[in-house]
Amino acid sequence: MNTAFRTWIRCVAPVLAWLGGGACLLMAASNAGPAGIETIDLFNGRDLTGWKGDPRFWSVEEGAITG
Fold first, then answer.
1. Hey, CA dihedral for 11, 14, 15, 20, is it positive or negative?
2. Looking at the predicted structure, is the pLDDT value of residue 25 above 80?
3. What does pTM read for this prediction?
4. What value, to the nearest 5°, has the Cα angle with vertex 50 and ends 36 and 45?
5. What sign does the CA torsion over 67, 48, 42, 65 have?
6. How far is C-alpha 14 from the chain's CA centre?
7. How many domains does the chain have?
8. pLDDT above 90 for 60
9. What per-residue confidence (pLDDT) applies to 59?
10. Whole-number Å distance between alpha carbons of 11 and 14
């Protein structure tokens, strides 16, 4: 590669990385969901309160459901 092309790449690559990072942040913010909609916690990380199932098979270990 010639020197001019390498110099051009060294200048353009950080700009493209910065723009890509900004795009990722915008997409993450837009995936937050619409305002005013309630969410339901399916699992509290401590026990199986509200869950239906045979406790002989299902349990909570270290904050995870195991079976």
1. positive
2. no
3. 0.41
4. 80
5. negative
6. 24
7. 1
8. yes
9. 92
10. 6
Q: Where are the alpha helices (H) located in the chain, listed in sequence order?
A: 3-30
Domain hosting 45: range is 3-66
Residues in Cβ contact with 60 at an 8 Å cutoff, skipping those fewer than 6 apart: 45, 46, 47, 48, 66
Contact (Cβ atoms closer than 8 angstroms) between residue 43 and residue 65:
yes
What six digits make up the tokens of 21?
A: 């990072």
- pLDDT, average across residues 33-38: 72
Alpha-carbon torsion angle 30, 11, 5, 3, nearest 10: -160
The one-letter amino acid code at 44 reads N
- Does 55 have pLDDT greater than 90? no
Q: What band does 31 get if pLDDT is binned at 50, 70 and 90? A: low
> How far apart are the C-alpha atoms of 17 and 23, rounded to whole Å?
10
Q: Which two tokens stand for residue 2?
A: 């010639």
